Amino acid sequence: MPQIIFVQPDGQRLCVEAKSGITAMEAARANGVAGIDADCSGACACATCHVHVAEEWSRAVGGPNDEEREILEFADAIGATSRLSCQIVLDDAMDGLILAVPGLS
Fold it and tell me: Within 10 Å of residue 26's Cβ, how many Cβ atoms?
């Protein structure tokens, strides 16, 4: 079971345990991570689960596909490592993954 670290805009870190095969969004919602609203419940139809993947994890997580990239255009504070957490499927190799929840602008 990988442990995922969600970093809040104020720097607070919340480490959650997640089952392999679920998404980072599902892990965040199951553990009450603030800022991961997931209004579309993981359908890749909104940007309310937007996160920034830590630079050292960007290669392992990979980049967004075209559909996700289009949805990210509606997110605040997008950056080079922006992803929708509903599109990040977790596996055991992602133990220690760091995802930052962007602050509202």
Answer: 22
